[in-house]
Each structure stands twice: as C-alpha cells, then as structure tokens.
Amino acid sequence: MPANGNDPIRLVLNGERVDVSGVSPQATLLSWLRETRQLPGTKEGCAEGDCGACTVVVAESRGDGTLAWKPVNACIRLIPSLDGKAVFTVESLRTRPARSIRCSRRSSSATGRSAASARPASR
Ligand code: FES
Fold first, then answer.
1. Integer Cα distance of 68 and 66 in angstroms
2. Range of the domain at 14
C-alpha cells in the first residue's frame, strides 16, 4: 500500500506502468478497470467474489527474485492493495502477436486420438 493517502498507487497494468491517484480507498479493481481504464473484458457477475466472471491475474514479488502469479476476483479487490503489483486482464492476451504462439496437433497411433499443444515459437 502507498505510504499515505496522498501517494499514488503504482502498479503495472497489462505491461504498462500506471500511477493511480484520486481514487476512493474503497474503489474495486473491477470498477476501475471498466470505468476508468475502459477495459470491459473483465466482467461483473455476482460482485461478491463467488462466480469468477471478474477474474484477472495479479503478479507480485515473492521477495526472492521470482513472481507469484495468482488469479484474483477483481470485484472484491480494492485498488490500494495493488500497489507494487502487476495486473493482467483478458485484453493483455490480444496484444501478443499471434505468431509468438505455435500450435501443433499430433496424433497418437496407439489411441487414435489427437492432442493439441501450444508453446512459444522459437526465433
Ligand atoms: S463478479 Fe463474481 S466473482 Fe467477481
């Protein structure tokens, strides 16, 4: 959390650093994403943390140089609690070039079934 109420909340949203100020301490991540950031991909369902329609991914430092990635219900997560963290919404998925993911389909001769896999394309 910011040191005091006057300090901006600093977070990364879909890979872009954002300083947030002037928001209510009770503002939810969901309302901020949809109303202020114009990111409608995160949906509101129950607004009580039960349905998962508002799920985003939050990354935060574990303190050992690695990141912990967690699914978070944006409808019950307050903006000030995101200081120093990274938030990824569904909109971040479309910014990745399609060619960076390579899909393949292979068949298993033993079962006759096919399986799909996705992996980053090599350069
Ligand atoms: S809207 Fe249902 S969990 Fe957030």
1. 7
2. 9-96
pLDDT single digits (tens) 21-67: 999 999 999 999 999 999 999 999 999 999 999 999 999 999 999 99
Rounded Cα–Cα distance for residues 43 and 73 (Å) = 10
Please check whether residue 110 lies inside any domain of the structure. Answer: no
Helix and strand numbers (H, E) in the chain are 1, 7
Specify the CATH number for the domain of residue 63.
3.10.20.30
How many angstroms is it from 41 CA to the middle of ligand 1? 13
Is the pTM higher than 0.85? The answer reads: no
Whose CA is closest to atom 3 on ligand 1?
49
Answer yes or no: is the C-beta of 16 below 6 A from any ligand 1 atom.
Answer: no
Q: How confident is the model at residue 4 (pLDDT cuts 50, 70, 90)?
A: low
57 lines ligand 1 (CB under 6 A): no
